[in-house]
Amino acid sequence: MTNILDDYALMSPLRHRNTWLKLVIVCFGLLVGVSSTSPITPLFIALCMSFTTIALGRAPLKLYLKLLLAPVGFALTGVIIIAFFSGSGQELLSFELAGYLFSVRADGLELALLVLSRSLSGMCCLYFLALTTPMIELFAVLKASRFPESFIELSMLIYRYIFVFLDMALSIRYAQTVRLGYSNFRRSIHSLGMLASTLFVRSWEQGDKLFLAMNSRCYDGKMTLFEVQRPVGAIELLLTSAYFLSVLALFYFTRNISIV
Amino acid sequence: MHIMEGFLPTPWWQLWFVVSIPVIAFGIYKMNKLINEKREVLPLLAVAGAFIFVLSSLKLPSVVGSCSHPTGTGVAAIMFGPAITAVLGTIVLIYQAIFLAHGGLTTLGANVFSMGILGPVVAYLVYKAGMKANLNFYLVVFLATALGDWATYVTTSVQLALAYPAGDVLTFAGFMSSFVKFAGVFAVTQVPLAIMEGAVSALLFKYVVNVKSDILVEMNVLEDSVVRKLRGNPA
């Protein structure tokens, strides 16, 4: 948790591209991925997005793989359940464990693979957004799309405070660890409670101070943002449309294919 | 308990958005009213949101060996009420999806419903009922957060079982069989986790009462007399 993805986004060369274009690419990937009926299209999307993030966005490969690994483990648990318990077709594998019969059926496995690939493609799209677009740029988009003012204001303030508190929490935890605060289970529960309460009290005071500081600078509930104009270049447009067309074509041709 | 991006198939993820959006809209409406009334609330709400995010990103040592994290929404529900917690929860979930790819954007509706709406509502109701019944404050906090956590995880299992019922067609029997399986597998981590989160939240309130109880009185979480009783100097 010490390295927030935003740091990489700020350094990425793709940062200086049009935010709307990136958002369209991500949303397109998410929607096609989730509505695809064979695992091939989502895998293709995942591959394209990963390539763009690493090669064009200059995200470190090692970090990227490590990032992907964490949610994949999470997704696998759900997928395994689907593989074992859904489906009604022909049995591929079955065994008995502690009196219960476990069996993987063909269509269950198919569904599990589909869900896993959808999940993977979604993650790749989200990481593309996370690693190439700093949050600040997204706020400008939110403003332009007429979200409720207070909602945006609140998100901006939360965004700012996440970093303040993360620093605070990490240093408190470090101090607690040095004093053996996490040496056994009982103690770690206690330490965590203490950390959370200190964080709460301090954040409360910080909120008071923030209000005072903003008020004395004539804050009236609206913060104005500086929005940079970034026109979409011809090459980007060409690449994006080529990508869209190939994904759609793949989507169309693989819609009835089953791989198991 | 986040549902991953791409995990819910087509009719379901839209459906959960349809369910969640009115609640969020109501939360925003309520929040706007509060802000217009008392402008100084906004920064406080912001730090509360950041607090939820940071708390949910701290890892909790788990009994089974896997690491998991407290949700923090139970605490927020007790302090701010469920409507505002829904808005804060939504923002935090968006950040988690974009920063950490934890959860997702298409499954945001489902996640908001389980983590931002149902869990906090249950926590809040348990808290109110417990305080009315004059139970010990820390016990009530423990129960509220633990039950809120369980409500979240049961909802997630329901959402997954609705999307992936046994036998591929949504029937009640198929839904139940697949629900029992999802719930059973998640129970391994979620049951002890919720108990731990309850313990941590109760401790959190204990320290806050000791150090800065006036905050809780100011926010109408606790009454003055209760705080005095908890601190052991009835006056």
Automatic annotation (TrEMBL), chain A:
Main localization category: membrane
Membrane topology: Multi-pass membrane protein
Transmembrane segments: 20-51, 63-85, 124-145, 157-175, 232-253
Superkingdom of the organism of origin: Archaea
Record-level GO cellular component terms: ATP-binding cassette (ABC) transporter complex
UniProt record, GO biological process: cobalt ion transport
Localization terms from the record: Cell membrane
Record key words, sorted: Cell membrane, Membrane, Transmembrane, Transmembrane helix
Pfam name, any one: CbiQ
Name of the protein this chain belongs to: Cobalt ECF transporter T component CbiQ
From TrEMBL, chain B:
InterPro entries, A to Z: CbiM, CbiM/NikMN
Transmembrane segments: 12-29, 41-58, 78-101, 108-127, 133-154, 186-209
Subcellular location: Cell inner membrane; Cell membrane
Biological pathway: Cofactor biosynthesis; adenosylcobalamin biosynthesis
Alphabetical UniProt keywords: Cell membrane, Cobalamin biosynthesis, Cobalt, Cobalt transport, Ion transport, Membrane, Transmembrane, Transmembrane helix, Transport
Main location class: membrane
Assembly and oligomerization: Forms an energy-coupling factor (ECF) transporter complex composed of an ATP-binding protein (A component, CbiO), a transmembrane protein (T component, CbiQ) and 2 possible substrate-capture proteins (S components, CbiM and CbiN) of unknown stoichimetry.
Protein family according to the UniProt entry: Belongs to the CbiM family.
Function in brief: Part of the energy-coupling factor (ECF) transporter complex CbiMNOQ involved in cobalt import.
Protein name: Putative cobalt transport protein CbiM
Species the sequence originates in: Methanosarcina acetivorans
Phylogenetic classification of the source organism: Archaea, Methanobacteriati, Methanobacteriota, Stenosarchaea group, Methanomicrobia
